# Entry
Amino acid sequence: MLETVATILGYAGAAVIAGAYFANQRGTLRSDDWRFPALNLAGSLGVLVSLAVEPNLPSILIELFWAGISIYGLARSLRSRRQQGR
# Structure
């Protein structure tokens, strides 16, 4: 049961990351919009859950970097929004 849930979260996470990237490429979701790094962080965490059940060190490392960069982007976006008064 735990493996199944982790696998579903991994697939969902990958879909969220791919969807956010596609929306960015289409121009419907800007990279400086707080939702872009938030979606990437959520997707990365979903993939990391699946990697906790089926570990793969290179994939774990890239997802940790992805999550870290997403946290940076989210903080930067929120800080910019605060400075603009939105």
User: Anything to note?
Assistant: Residues 71 and 79 are 12 Å apart (CA to CA). The chain has one domain: 2-84. DSSP finds three helices and no strands in the chain.
